[in-house]
Structure formats: C-alpha cells, structure tokens
Amino acid sequence: MIQVANEAAAAPAARRDGRALRAGIAQRAEGLAIPLAALLVGLLLFSAFIRALGKSPTQLFELMWRGGFGTWFSIQNTLSRAAPLLLAGLCVALPARLGLVIIGGEGAIVIGGVAAAAAWPAFAGAPPALVVVAMAIASMIAGGAWIGAVGALRHFRAVNETIASLLMSYIAIALMNHLVEGPLRDPTSLNKPSTLPLPDIDRIGAIPGLDLHWGLVVGIVACILAWLLIEKTRWGFAARIAGGNMRAAQIQGLPVGALIVGFCALAGALAGLGGMIEVAAVQGAANASLAAGYGYTGILVAFLARQNPLAIVPVAILLGGVGASGGLIQRRMDLPDATVLVLQGMIFIVILLSDTFYGRFRLFNPERWRRNG
Amino acid sequence: MADAAQAAGIGLWAVPLAMIGGAIRVSTPFIFVSLGETITERSGRINLGLEGTLVFGAMTAYAIAVETGSAWIGLAGAFVSGCCFGLLHGWICKFPRVNDIAIGIALMLFGTGLAFFFGKAYIQPSAPHLPAIPFGFWSSTPQVRAALDVNALFLTGAALAVFLWWAFQNTKIGLVVRVVGDSSDAARAMGYSPDLVRLLATAVGGGMAAIGGGYLSLYYPGSWNESISSGQGLMAVALVIFSRWNPLGCLAAALLFGGAGALGPALQSVGVTHGYYLFYAAPYVLTLAIMILTSSPGRTLAGAPGELSITR
Predict the structure, then answer these.
(1) pLDDT, tens digit, for every residue of A45-99?
(2) Neighbours of A153 (CB within 10 A)
(3) What CATH number does the domain located at B2-311 have?
(4) What is the pLDDT of residue A369?
(5) Which residues of B touch A177 (CB under 8 A)?
(6) Are B118 and B62 in contact (CB under 8 A)?
(7) Are the beta carbons of B231 and A170 separated by less than 8 Å?
(8) Terminal Cα-to-Cα distance of chain A (whole angstroms)
(9) Is A330 at the interface with chain B, CB within 8 A?
(10) Phi, psi (degrees; rounded to nearest 5) at A194
C-alpha cells in the first residue's frame, strides 16, 4: 500500500525531471542552431555580394580556407591572430553579462601595450620571468583602470557606457601617439615612432616546437577562468541576476556598483593583457600597430559567441582564420583588404537579427511539441 | 577680434582666429550628423551606426564627384546612400528582441568596411571641392580671409537647425515624430504606425549623417582616405544627448566641438609642437566631460523621448 503511494508520487516527479531535461537540451540546441544558421545566411549574403562583383565566391572561400586553416603554417598564423581576439572578446563578454555594452576594448589594448612598454625600463636586467610578469601586471592595471573608469562612470554618474568606452578608446590612441612620439620614444625609431625595443630575452617566446607564442594559451586559460567565474562562483551568479534585472538585484541588496566596476575592470585588465602580449610577443615595442582593430573584431567575437566565454575560443579562432586569409585573398583575387571587414559586418548584422527568432520555433520548445498548430 | 588681430600684427591672435575658422569648418559634419540623429532619437530610436554611415557617405560623395565631375551630385549620392543605411537600421530594429544599440555597432563596422572596400580605388584620384563663400573679402590679412571662408553647407546646416527647431513644435510631421518618440501606444491610438515613422526618421537621419561625411571628403579636409573620420559620427550622438534633443542646442554644441577639434591644428600652425597629439584628444575629453556633467543617476534626462532605449 505504501509502496504504491510512493510510486504514484514518484511518477509525476520523474515526468517533471524528464520534461526539464528535454527543455534544457532543446534550449541548448536552439542556442547552437540559430547562430550557426545565421552564420550560414551571412556567408550566403556575402557570396551574393562577391558574385555581384563578378568574382567567384567558391574561389574566395577556398582561399579563405587555405589562408586560414589549410596548411600548418596558416593554422599557426590563425592561432596567433586568435590570441588577442580571445582577450578582446572577453572584454565585451564579461560586462555584457551585466547588461553593459562595452565597445572600447581597442583602447584598453592600446593603453595596456603602452603601459607594458613603459614599465620595461624599470625592470630591465631583472630575471626575464619577473620582467614579463611585471609588464603583464602593469598592462592589466592600466587596462583595468581604463575600462573600470567607464564602469564607475556608468554606475555613479549614469554615463552611457557604450559611447564613453569608445571615446576612451580615441583618448587612449591619442595618449599613445603622444607618448610614443614624445617621452617614451626610442630616438633610433625613425619611420615608425616606437618605444625602446625589448631585448629578445624579455620577450614572450614561442611554444616549444611551434611557431606560435604563448599568448594563445593565456587567452584560452582566461576564457576558461572567465567561464568559471560566471557560471560557478557567487560573483558570477550575482552578475547574472543583475544583468537580468538591475533594479531587482539592487533591491535584493546585491553590491551592484562593485559588480559593475569589478567586471569592467576585469574586462579591461584582460584586454590590456592582450596589448602587452602584442608588445612582448609580436611587435617587440609599443607603436601605432597596437591599434590594429583587434578591439573592434573582439566585439563581433563576443556577440557571435553569445557572450559565452567558452564559445569565444572557437569563434576567435574562426575569425582569426578569416583575418589571416585576408592577404591571400587580396593577392589572388584582386579584392581590397577590406573584404574581410565586409564579411564580418554582414555576419554581425545577421547574427543580431537572428536574436528575434529565439523562442519562435516549435522544434526547440518541447512544451509545444504535442499541441497542434 | 579681427580688427584687433590686424592692429596687433597677427602674432598670438592667430590661435583664436584659427580656432574660429576651424570651429566653423570642423563643426559642419557635427551639425549634420547631430541634427540627423536628433530626428531619429526624437522618434524613439537610437542609431549608433552613424559613424559607419558618415564614412560610407564620405566615400560615396568622393567617388561620385570623381566620376561625374560635380561635387553636388556626389553630395546627393551620399544622401541617398545614407538613407539606405538608415532604412536598413530601421528595418532590422523593428523586429522584436533586436537590440538597437548592438545593431548600431554592427552597422558602424559594416559601413566602415564597405566604404574601405569600394573606396580603395578612389584614394588616389582627386575630386572637385564644394565651393566656399569668401566672407573675409574685406580683409587684407590672409589668416582672416582663411578663417572667414565659409562653406555653403555650414550655412545650410545652421538654417536647418533653426528650421527643425521650429518644425518640431509647429508642423504636423514634427508633432507626429515627437508623439511616436514619447509613446508608441499613444501614436498607435492616434492611428500612426510607430515602426513606419521610426523607419523614415532613421532614414532621414542616415542621409544627413552621410552629407556630413560628404563634407569631410569634398571640403574639409577634402580628400578620401581610410582615416577620414575620427569618431565624429559617434561624438555627434553624445552631443545630441548633451543638447537635450534640441536642434538649436545641437548647433551650439557642434560649434563648441568644432572649436575643440580645431585646437590641435591651430596650435600647430603657430609652432606649438610639444604635446600636440594630446590636443587632438581635446574633443573626446570634452565630450566625455560633458557627458559626465550632464548625466546623473536616479533621474531621467529632461526632455528625453520616452521610448528611447538609451535613457530607460
């Protein structure tokens, strides 16, 4: 008798669990299928654009594959371009969890790179590992302060963070030009004003056996840590609540101000670290090459990854490959180097447009499977 | 001031003089972009993509002017291209759950990319310039004459600001735009479609931003290259908020920004080279300072359209 009662009680619970599981799977499938479909539509639109110009889209995609992923050399090129994109993507994705749209990652990259180059003379001669760590810390403090300030303005003065962060970017670039042409200039850099070149010993080297610097590993580790922060810690939990409804979070007594400033500062610190890696692993000195547009591509990376730090890894590698193939496309097909920018812009627009389709398909909503119409 | 400059021999007066002339020259794109954005925002939508529209307009105006030999046809072409970008933005934003700020960022990147793509071939050839009206004809001092060479577009922009200020209050179209911006429900109750009004307002805003771009490539600095805009399109959006969605305020703010933007070149012209890159940051610092001073937590901005996502 008791057993029967238990079974009767257990059956609806099991059905509920099954339903929740199905809903969870369907939601994940939707989160994967819609962006992939949007990516495909973006590529089709781009094909139509290329076809309209009288060029062959198949040749273009083939070159893109060859230039980005086709050979061991191109894969290494792609991966070294992906490194700054990982960190620039995180600079957008972390504040996005709080509902903030930060688009000034470029500025944090620039200011981080300059801070690293400025810190180097103070540590020159110390053990190389210490020098690299000191430069990394300097860049993270500078980048963190840069975007953290945007977060503080947002919280304490209600200044729009999107516009403020982009203005801060322009200020960062002007500041870099001032420092690189003036106080920090290496007098021997004539054509392209730069800071003092780092000696080889103080640079970030290649991963043994590969023609690829450690920046990629740093970027991937940062993505994993950011994912853990958001999904597995109480700060991340609080941030997700605040991102869902800022006022409710405030009423619940969550430290909204500390979350906003903290997440922005962390985002800026990571982008700043990206700038330091560009200086210490790629350029060897801080100069105008720091403002190469990684910060802007990072916006696209974060939106394509739907602000999920783990998804940033494949997306950054994909876009790194697209960027790596730009030169080959330019040479072989006589298309401008901005072809890649057009492709990125089209994909970006279609991805944002696809936001409207969430929850519209019955396929992804098990509750509606049985119902008619 | 011009008389004083003549009396004292030019000397240090060259700086304020160059700044006045510079303010007029540099402010023109700000005027057009911010007036366009005012129309769009008054209808309850924000278009952050005007930076891309501006760059694309600069390229279109220049390319068409090179091909046809007429700067005015180039400007008209820029207007049409800007309207297309505005229509695209307006069309995408009408779908539910699409974020208008993010779409603006995407269109900023797309417009810039497309402009670089088609503009590659036009970096070398030179296009006819838009004519200037020499208001400084009475002076024999070359600096005064240079400062008072005023482009017709500046005068058009100033007249347009006054007209829009009047039209928002006194014409039916102006009232419809404002109603749609303040309450979609009220507009629907009156029989107007908020989506359609916003679509048209965004298209006109885009067209005006592109004219601002055409001014850049066809008059000052007067050439097409990939660094033609340095955030004017975006600063203009901030400027609209600062001027409280008032067209006359936009005109005043644009002149202020133009003056700040002219500071670097003006100092350079009298031989100040130390730290002159920092003066190039002046407009951005000024924009940021103004945003900090005019924003405030806990209260919505006075005069803000009720449906505007940026102030909610």
Answers:
(1) 999 999 999 999 999 999 999 999 999 999 999 999 999 999 999 999 999 999 9
(2) 22
(3) 1.10.3470
(4) 72
(5) 277, 280
(6) no
(7) yes
(8) 43
(9) no
(10) -140, 165
Q: Does residue A53 belong to the interface with chain B, where contact is any CB pair within 8 Å?
A: no
Q: What is chain B's length? A: 312
The pair phi, psi for residue A213, each rounded to 5°, is: -85, 170
- What the block records as the tokens of A81 is 């371009």
- Residues A345, B105: C-beta atoms closer than 8 Å: no
Which residues 140-179 of A are in CB contact (within 8 Å) with B? 153, 155-160, 162-164, 166-168, 170-171, 174-175, 177-178
Q: Is-above-0.80 flag for pTM?
A: yes
Closest-CA residue of chain B to A164: B288
Kindly report the backbone phi and psi dihedral angles of residue A197, in degrees, each rounded to the nearest multiple of 5, phi listed first: -70, 140
Contacts (Cβ under 8 Å, ≥6 apart) of A138:
A115, A116, A118, A119, A276
B44 Cα to chain A: minimum distance (Å): 17
Rounded Cα distance, A225 and A210, in Å: 25
For residue A103, give the 3-state DSSP assignment.
Answer: coil
Query: Please, where are the H alpha helices in B135-231?
Result: 142-147, 152-170, 172-182, 184-189, 194-218
- Alpha-carbon distance of B247 to B249, in angstroms, equals 5
Minimum Cα–Cα distance from B286: chain A residue: A167
Amino acid making up residue A195: T
DSSP of A245-287? -HHHHHHTT--HHHHHHHHHHHHHHHHHHHHHHIIIIIISS-B
Element (H, E) at B14: helix B14-42
Contacts of B101 in chain A (CB under 8 A): 101, 162
Q: Give CA–CA dist B28/B154, Å, rounded.
A: 5
Contact across the interface for A341 and B95, Cβ inside 8 Å: no
- Give the sign of the dihedral formed by CA A88, CA A89, CA A93, CA A96: positive
The full length of chain A comes to 373
Q: What ipTM score was computed for the predicted complex, to two decimals?
A: 0.90
pLDDT digits (tens, 9 = 90+) for A172-230: 999 999 999 888 999 888 888 999 999 999 999 888 888 889 999 999 999 999 999 99
